[in-house]
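#structure-requests
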Amino acid sequence: MLTFIAQNKLAEHWPLKQDALLISMQQECYPDVLQRDFMALFCGDAPKVTPYRSDWLDADESEIREFLLARGMPCGEKPTDHFGALLLAGSWLEDQAQQDETEAQRELFDRFLLTWGEQFLSKVEAHADTGFYRALAILCREALPELRDELGADVQHQG
């Protein structure tokens, strides 16, 4: 994926007009530097930003696991409330779900992503050492509500 970004090929496939952020990511795409920033941001005993929903909200990871398993998604052993895992779950729901695919996607956004995503991404932006991760945080923060809006009618679920 980094090669795709470095070669500016993501822009031709990205559904939103966020060209300046995509260019910023392309210009800052140095794998060794990004690896160090990633590790400092999200890994170890004292990450700068925890990527787990259960650390942001008074919420249990099993709630997401049950939601995904009920829709047929294989979850494995890793926590399902990791921000990246939730983004992948959204993609999986879009690709795999049946008639209620938009309902499941709306519920994923409303209950499990939008309830804490903006705070998480703002903290990533504030604590990232690289322009790449700052731009990625802004890109995601802007994209999530737009992607949710594309799914249609509001369904209010609070988790």
